[in-house]
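Methods: holo model generation. Sequences were used as deposited, without trimming of termini or removal of tags, and paired with ligand SMILES retrieved from the corresponding compound records. Each pair was processed once, and we did not select among multiple samples. The sequence and magnesium ion SMILES for this entry were:
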Amino acid sequence: MESRTLRALLHDMLLARAFEERAAEEYTRGNIAGFLHLYPGEEAVAVGVLHAAEPSDYIVSTYREHVHALVRGIPPGVLMAELFGRKDGCSGGLGGSMHLFDRERRFMGGYAIVGETFPVAAGIGYAVAMRQLPEAVICFFGDGAVNQGTFHEALNMTALWQLPVLFVCENNRYQIGTEIHRHSAVAEVYKRACGYRIPAHRVDGMDVLAVHEATQAALAEIRGGNGPQFLEFETYRFRGHSMADPGLYRSKVEVQSFEQEDPITVAIAETVPAYPSQEQIAAAGPDSIARLSEHLNDAGHLSTDQLEAMKAEIGRIVEQAVEFAANSPEPTMADAVAALECNRGTEVLI
Ligand SMILES: Cc1ncc(C[n+]2csc(CCOP(=O)(O)OP(=O)(O)O)c2C)c(N)n1
Ligand SMILES: [Mg+2]
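and the model returned the structure below.
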Protein backbone atom coordinates (compact mmCIF):
# COMPACT_ATOMS: atom_id res chain seq x y z
CA MET A 1 0.00 0.00 0.00
CA GLU A 2 1.22 3.49 -0.81
CA SER A 3 2.57 5.67 1.99
CA ARG A 4 0.03 8.34 1.19
CA THR A 5 -2.87 5.93 1.68
CA LEU A 6 -1.38 4.54 4.89
CA ARG A 7 -0.93 8.03 6.26
CA ALA A 8 -4.49 8.96 5.29
CA LEU A 9 -5.87 5.90 7.11
CA LEU A 10 -3.89 6.69 10.23
CA HIS A 11 -4.85 10.36 10.07
CA ASP A 12 -8.56 9.58 9.93
CA MET A 13 -8.34 7.06 12.78
CA LEU A 14 -6.57 9.58 14.97
CA LEU A 15 -9.04 12.31 14.00
CA ALA A 16 -11.94 9.96 14.76
CA ARG A 17 -10.57 9.14 18.21
CA ALA A 18 -9.86 12.79 19.04
CA PHE A 19 -13.28 13.93 17.78
CA GLU A 20 -15.14 11.34 19.83
CA GLU A 21 -13.14 11.91 23.01
CA ARG A 22 -13.83 15.61 22.67
CA ALA A 23 -17.53 14.96 22.08
CA ALA A 24 -17.55 13.02 25.36
CA GLU A 25 -16.05 16.02 27.14
CA GLU A 26 -18.56 18.40 25.59
CA TYR A 27 -21.36 16.06 26.66
CA THR A 28 -20.25 16.18 30.28
CA ARG A 29 -20.07 20.00 30.00
CA GLY A 30 -23.73 20.00 28.95
CA ASN A 31 -23.10 21.20 25.40
CA ILE A 32 -24.52 18.00 23.89
CA ALA A 33 -27.88 16.66 25.01
CA GLY A 34 -29.68 13.35 24.58
CA PHE A 35 -27.93 10.08 23.91
CA LEU A 36 -24.36 10.02 22.64
CA HIS A 37 -22.96 6.75 21.30
CA LEU A 38 -19.23 6.90 20.77
CA TYR A 39 -16.87 4.92 18.53
CA PRO A 40 -13.42 4.62 20.21
CA GLY A 41 -12.00 1.16 19.57
CA GLU A 42 -13.95 0.64 16.34
CA GLU A 43 -12.14 3.19 14.13
CA ALA A 44 -10.49 0.64 11.86
CA VAL A 45 -13.89 -0.43 10.54
CA ALA A 46 -15.27 2.95 9.44
CA VAL A 47 -11.90 4.14 8.16
CA GLY A 48 -10.98 0.94 6.32
CA VAL A 49 -14.40 0.56 4.72
CA LEU A 50 -14.96 4.16 3.70
CA HIS A 51 -11.49 4.65 2.24
CA ALA A 52 -12.32 1.80 -0.13
CA ALA A 53 -15.59 3.42 -1.24
CA GLU A 54 -16.18 5.80 -4.14
CA PRO A 55 -17.77 9.24 -3.69
CA SER A 56 -20.71 7.97 -5.77
CA ASP A 57 -21.48 5.16 -3.30
CA TYR A 58 -24.24 5.59 -0.74
CA ILE A 59 -23.69 5.17 2.98
CA VAL A 60 -26.40 4.17 5.44
CA SER A 61 -25.50 3.99 9.11
CA THR A 62 -26.76 3.62 12.65
CA TYR A 63 -26.87 5.88 15.70
CA ARG A 64 -23.13 5.21 16.31
CA GLU A 65 -22.30 7.06 13.12
CA HIS A 66 -20.24 10.19 13.85
CA VAL A 67 -17.07 8.59 12.54
CA HIS A 68 -18.72 7.27 9.38
CA ALA A 69 -19.87 10.81 8.65
CA LEU A 70 -16.48 12.29 9.51
CA VAL A 71 -14.52 9.89 7.29
CA ARG A 72 -17.05 10.41 4.52
CA GLY A 73 -15.96 14.05 4.52
CA ILE A 74 -18.52 16.01 6.51
CA PRO A 75 -16.38 18.78 8.04
CA PRO A 76 -15.68 18.24 11.77
CA GLY A 77 -17.14 21.66 12.65
CA VAL A 78 -20.40 20.90 10.85
CA LEU A 79 -20.61 17.55 12.64
CA MET A 80 -19.86 19.00 16.05
CA ALA A 81 -22.46 21.72 15.39
CA GLU A 82 -25.04 18.97 14.75
CA LEU A 83 -24.11 17.25 18.01
CA PHE A 84 -24.54 20.63 19.73
CA GLY A 85 -27.97 21.02 18.06
CA ARG A 86 -26.93 24.14 16.18
CA LYS A 87 -28.10 25.60 12.91
CA ASP A 88 -24.82 25.03 11.01
CA GLY A 89 -24.97 21.29 11.71
CA CYS A 90 -25.38 18.89 8.78
CA SER A 91 -29.06 18.36 9.68
CA GLY A 92 -29.63 22.00 10.57
CA GLY A 93 -29.29 21.20 14.27
CA LEU A 94 -32.65 19.41 14.18
CA GLY A 95 -31.34 15.85 14.13
CA GLY A 96 -28.50 15.65 16.62
CA SER A 97 -26.04 12.84 17.23
CA MET A 98 -28.17 10.00 15.84
CA HIS A 99 -29.51 11.74 12.73
CA LEU A 100 -26.56 12.95 10.71
CA PHE A 101 -27.32 13.41 7.02
CA ASP A 102 -25.51 14.80 3.99
CA ARG A 103 -27.10 14.40 0.61
CA GLU A 104 -24.11 15.77 -1.32
CA ARG A 105 -21.77 13.15 0.18
CA ARG A 106 -24.43 10.49 -0.19
CA PHE A 107 -24.44 9.98 3.54
CA MET A 108 -28.03 8.82 3.80
CA GLY A 109 -28.36 8.98 7.50
CA GLY A 110 -27.76 7.75 10.89
CA TYR A 111 -30.82 5.81 12.10
CA ALA A 112 -31.80 5.39 15.73
CA ILE A 113 -33.98 2.33 15.30
CA VAL A 114 -31.98 -0.88 15.43
CA GLY A 115 -32.38 -2.60 12.05
CA GLU A 116 -33.71 0.52 10.34
CA THR A 117 -30.73 0.72 8.00
CA PHE A 118 -31.60 -2.49 6.12
CA PRO A 119 -34.76 -1.47 4.27
CA VAL A 120 -33.27 1.96 3.51
CA ALA A 121 -30.15 0.35 2.00
CA ALA A 122 -32.20 -2.19 0.06
CA GLY A 123 -34.40 0.59 -1.33
CA ILE A 124 -31.45 2.68 -2.46
CA GLY A 125 -29.85 -0.45 -3.91
CA TYR A 126 -33.04 -1.12 -5.86
CA ALA A 127 -33.01 2.42 -7.27
CA VAL A 128 -29.35 2.07 -8.30
CA ALA A 129 -30.00 -1.31 -9.95
CA MET A 130 -33.01 0.03 -11.86
CA ARG A 131 -30.79 2.75 -13.32
CA GLN A 132 -27.95 0.29 -13.96
CA LEU A 133 -25.37 2.53 -12.32
CA PRO A 134 -21.96 1.33 -11.08
CA GLU A 135 -22.74 2.53 -7.55
CA ALA A 136 -22.87 0.55 -4.34
CA VAL A 137 -24.75 1.01 -1.08
CA ILE A 138 -22.79 0.43 2.10
CA CYS A 139 -25.03 -0.58 4.97
CA PHE A 140 -23.51 -0.43 8.48
CA PHE A 141 -25.17 -2.20 11.41
CA GLY A 142 -24.29 -3.74 14.75
CA ASP A 143 -24.32 -7.36 15.88
CA GLY A 144 -27.48 -6.53 17.82
CA ALA A 145 -29.40 -5.77 14.63
CA VAL A 146 -29.14 -9.20 13.05
CA ASN A 147 -32.15 -10.67 14.82
CA GLN A 148 -34.51 -7.99 13.54
CA GLY A 149 -36.94 -9.03 10.83
CA THR A 150 -35.68 -6.23 8.58
CA PHE A 151 -32.25 -7.91 8.44
CA HIS A 152 -33.67 -11.13 7.01
CA GLU A 153 -36.09 -9.37 4.67
CA ALA A 154 -33.35 -7.15 3.27
CA LEU A 155 -30.87 -10.00 2.84
CA ASN A 156 -33.50 -12.02 1.00
CA MET A 157 -34.58 -9.21 -1.31
CA THR A 158 -31.09 -7.95 -2.14
CA ALA A 159 -29.96 -11.50 -2.95
CA LEU A 160 -33.09 -12.31 -4.95
CA TRP A 161 -32.76 -9.17 -7.05
CA GLN A 162 -28.96 -9.06 -6.98
CA LEU A 163 -28.88 -5.53 -5.60
CA PRO A 164 -25.56 -3.68 -5.15
CA VAL A 165 -25.48 -3.64 -1.35
CA LEU A 166 -22.49 -4.23 0.90
CA PHE A 167 -23.65 -5.33 4.34
CA VAL A 168 -21.12 -4.30 6.98
CA CYS A 169 -21.61 -5.78 10.43
CA GLU A 170 -19.70 -3.98 13.17
CA ASN A 171 -19.59 -6.86 15.59
CA ASN A 172 -18.44 -5.31 18.86
CA ARG A 173 -19.80 -8.35 20.74
CA TYR A 174 -22.43 -6.42 22.67
CA GLN A 175 -25.97 -5.22 22.17
CA ILE A 176 -25.90 -2.60 24.92
CA GLY A 177 -25.10 -4.89 27.89
CA THR A 178 -26.00 -8.24 26.32
CA GLU A 179 -23.12 -10.26 24.96
CA ILE A 180 -23.54 -11.79 21.51
CA HIS A 181 -23.75 -15.42 22.62
CA ARG A 182 -26.70 -14.44 24.80
CA HIS A 183 -28.64 -12.59 22.12
CA SER A 184 -27.90 -14.70 19.04
CA ALA A 185 -28.46 -18.40 18.46
CA VAL A 186 -25.76 -18.22 15.77
CA ALA A 187 -23.05 -15.94 17.11
CA GLU A 188 -20.90 -16.15 13.96
CA VAL A 189 -22.81 -13.41 12.19
CA TYR A 190 -21.29 -13.96 8.75
CA LYS A 191 -22.73 -17.50 8.62
CA ARG A 192 -26.24 -16.10 8.48
CA ALA A 193 -25.60 -14.66 5.02
CA CYS A 194 -25.24 -18.13 3.52
CA GLY A 195 -28.95 -18.66 4.24
CA TYR A 196 -29.51 -16.13 1.49
CA ARG A 197 -26.64 -17.14 -0.80
CA ILE A 198 -24.74 -13.94 -0.10
CA PRO A 199 -20.95 -14.31 -0.10
CA ALA A 200 -19.68 -13.43 3.37
CA HIS A 201 -16.39 -13.10 5.21
CA ARG A 202 -15.36 -12.57 8.80
CA VAL A 203 -12.48 -10.12 9.10
CA ASP A 204 -10.32 -8.70 11.91
CA GLY A 205 -11.98 -5.34 12.51
CA MET A 206 -9.07 -4.06 14.61
CA ASP A 207 -6.76 -4.14 11.58
CA VAL A 208 -7.46 -1.25 9.24
CA LEU A 209 -5.49 -2.80 6.37
CA ALA A 210 -7.44 -6.05 6.55
CA VAL A 211 -10.70 -4.08 6.62
CA HIS A 212 -9.66 -1.98 3.63
CA GLU A 213 -8.58 -4.97 1.58
CA ALA A 214 -11.73 -6.98 2.31
CA THR A 215 -13.92 -4.01 1.42
CA GLN A 216 -12.11 -3.37 -1.85
CA ALA A 217 -12.61 -6.99 -2.84
CA ALA A 218 -16.29 -6.98 -1.86
CA LEU A 219 -17.00 -3.72 -3.71
CA ALA A 220 -15.26 -5.04 -6.82
CA GLU A 221 -17.64 -8.03 -6.77
CA ILE A 222 -20.64 -5.77 -6.36
CA ARG A 223 -19.55 -3.48 -9.22
CA GLY A 224 -19.05 -6.58 -11.34
CA GLY A 225 -22.81 -7.09 -11.12
CA ASN A 226 -22.65 -10.04 -8.74
CA GLY A 227 -25.18 -8.84 -6.21
CA PRO A 228 -24.80 -8.20 -2.48
CA GLN A 229 -21.79 -9.00 -0.32
CA PHE A 230 -21.50 -9.37 3.43
CA LEU A 231 -18.60 -8.53 5.74
CA GLU A 232 -18.49 -9.15 9.47
CA PHE A 233 -15.81 -7.12 11.24
CA GLU A 234 -14.86 -8.25 14.71
CA THR A 235 -14.25 -5.19 16.81
CA TYR A 236 -14.74 -3.77 20.31
CA ARG A 237 -15.93 -0.52 21.80
CA PHE A 238 -13.73 0.80 24.57
CA ARG A 239 -16.41 2.99 26.14
CA GLY A 240 -19.90 2.16 27.40
CA HIS A 241 -22.81 1.73 24.98
CA SER A 242 -23.58 5.45 25.33
CA MET A 243 -22.46 8.19 27.67
CA ALA A 244 -25.26 7.07 30.01
CA ASP A 245 -23.71 3.59 30.36
CA PRO A 246 -20.97 2.90 32.92
CA GLY A 247 -20.47 -0.50 31.25
CA LEU A 248 -20.42 -2.54 34.46
CA TYR A 249 -21.36 -5.75 32.63
CA ARG A 250 -17.85 -6.13 31.16
CA SER A 251 -14.95 -7.20 33.33
CA LYS A 252 -11.89 -4.93 33.54
CA VAL A 253 -9.77 -7.80 32.25
CA GLU A 254 -11.90 -8.12 29.13
CA VAL A 255 -11.75 -4.40 28.34
CA GLN A 256 -8.00 -4.29 28.98
CA SER A 257 -7.34 -7.24 26.74
CA PHE A 258 -9.09 -5.53 23.84
CA GLU A 259 -7.39 -2.21 24.59
CA GLN A 260 -4.11 -3.97 23.93
CA GLU A 261 -5.33 -4.51 20.39
CA ASP A 262 -6.17 -0.82 19.96
CA PRO A 263 -6.52 -0.37 16.18
CA ILE A 264 -4.73 2.96 16.36
CA THR A 265 -1.65 1.45 18.00
CA VAL A 266 -1.69 -1.24 15.33
CA ALA A 267 -1.97 1.36 12.56
CA ILE A 268 0.88 3.42 14.01
CA ALA A 269 3.06 0.32 14.12
CA GLU A 270 2.26 -0.22 10.43
CA THR A 271 3.01 3.36 9.50
CA VAL A 272 5.94 4.50 11.59
CA PRO A 273 9.12 2.87 10.34
CA ALA A 274 11.48 1.17 12.77
CA TYR A 275 14.87 2.74 12.15
CA PRO A 276 17.92 0.52 12.47
CA SER A 277 20.22 1.04 15.42
CA GLN A 278 23.71 2.53 14.98
CA GLU A 279 25.09 -0.98 15.50
CA GLN A 280 22.98 -2.37 12.68
CA ILE A 281 24.05 0.44 10.37
CA ALA A 282 27.69 -0.10 11.29
CA ALA A 283 27.33 -3.85 10.71
CA ALA A 284 25.92 -3.16 7.26
CA GLY A 285 29.26 -1.54 6.32
CA PRO A 286 30.03 1.93 5.00
CA ASP A 287 29.04 1.12 1.44
CA SER A 288 25.60 0.08 2.50
CA ILE A 289 24.83 3.21 4.46
CA ALA A 290 23.84 5.27 1.46
CA ARG A 291 21.77 2.41 0.11
CA LEU A 292 20.22 1.81 3.50
CA SER A 293 19.22 5.43 4.04
CA GLU A 294 17.83 5.61 0.53
CA HIS A 295 15.77 2.50 1.20
CA LEU A 296 14.50 3.93 4.48
CA ASN A 297 13.49 7.08 2.71
CA ASP A 298 11.56 5.08 0.15
CA ALA A 299 9.97 2.65 2.57
CA GLY A 300 9.73 4.92 5.62
CA HIS A 301 6.15 6.00 5.67
CA LEU A 302 6.17 8.44 8.51
CA SER A 303 8.74 9.53 11.06
CA THR A 304 7.93 9.89 14.75
CA ASP A 305 8.19 13.68 14.39
CA GLN A 306 5.72 13.62 11.53
CA LEU A 307 3.36 11.53 13.67
CA GLU A 308 3.55 14.07 16.49
CA ALA A 309 2.92 16.90 14.00
CA MET A 310 -0.10 15.00 12.66
CA LYS A 311 -1.52 14.62 16.17
CA ALA A 312 -0.98 18.30 16.92
CA GLU A 313 -2.72 19.30 13.71
CA ILE A 314 -5.66 17.02 14.57
CA GLY A 315 -5.85 18.64 18.01
CA ARG A 316 -6.23 22.02 16.29
CA ILE A 317 -8.89 20.69 13.90
CA VAL A 318 -10.99 19.39 16.80
CA GLU A 319 -10.54 22.62 18.76
CA GLN A 320 -11.75 24.63 15.78
CA ALA A 321 -14.69 22.25 15.34
CA VAL A 322 -15.83 22.94 18.91
CA GLU A 323 -15.38 26.68 18.42
CA PHE A 324 -17.42 26.55 15.21
CA ALA A 325 -20.20 24.60 16.94
CA ALA A 326 -20.28 26.87 19.98
CA ASN A 327 -20.56 29.97 17.79
CA SER A 328 -23.33 28.59 15.62
CA PRO A 329 -26.87 29.83 16.50
CA GLU A 330 -29.64 27.54 17.63
CA PRO A 331 -32.28 26.73 15.02
CA THR A 332 -35.51 28.69 15.38
CA MET A 333 -39.07 27.41 15.54
CA ALA A 334 -39.49 28.69 11.97
CA ASP A 335 -36.57 26.43 10.90
CA ALA A 336 -38.28 23.46 12.52
CA VAL A 337 -41.59 24.21 10.78
CA ALA A 338 -39.81 24.69 7.43
CA ALA A 339 -38.14 21.29 7.87
CA LEU A 340 -41.51 19.67 8.56
CA GLU A 341 -43.01 21.31 5.49
CA CYS A 342 -40.13 20.49 3.15
CA ASN A 343 -41.81 17.57 1.43
CA ARG A 344 -45.29 18.99 1.18
CA GLY A 345 -46.67 18.78 -2.32
CA THR A 346 -44.10 16.25 -3.49
CA GLU A 347 -45.42 13.15 -1.73
CA VAL A 348 -45.53 10.08 -3.88
CA LEU A 349 -48.51 7.86 -3.23
CA ILE A 350 -48.21 4.28 -4.36
C1 LIG B 1 -35.97 -1.50 17.32
C2 LIG B 1 -35.14 -1.04 18.48
N1 LIG B 1 -35.12 -1.80 19.61
C3 LIG B 1 -34.37 -1.40 20.66
C4 LIG B 1 -33.63 -0.24 20.62
C5 LIG B 1 -32.77 0.16 21.79
N2 LIG B 1 -31.35 -0.01 21.44
C6 LIG B 1 -30.59 1.04 21.10
S1 LIG B 1 -29.06 0.60 20.73
C7 LIG B 1 -29.36 -1.04 21.01
C8 LIG B 1 -28.27 -2.06 20.89
C9 LIG B 1 -27.86 -2.35 19.49
O1 LIG B 1 -26.66 -3.05 19.51
P1 LIG B 1 -25.80 -3.28 18.23
O2 LIG B 1 -26.68 -3.42 17.05
O3 LIG B 1 -24.86 -4.39 18.51
O4 LIG B 1 -25.01 -1.90 18.02
P2 LIG B 1 -23.87 -1.25 18.94
O5 LIG B 1 -24.59 -0.34 19.88
O6 LIG B 1 -23.14 -2.33 19.61
O7 LIG B 1 -23.02 -0.47 17.99
C10 LIG B 1 -30.68 -1.21 21.42
C11 LIG B 1 -31.27 -2.51 21.76
C12 LIG B 1 -33.70 0.52 19.43
N3 LIG B 1 -33.02 1.66 19.29
N4 LIG B 1 -34.43 0.08 18.37
MG1 LIG C 1 -22.94 -4.34 19.12
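Strands lie at 58-61, 107-110, 137-142, 165-171, 174-175, 178-179, 200-204, 229-234.
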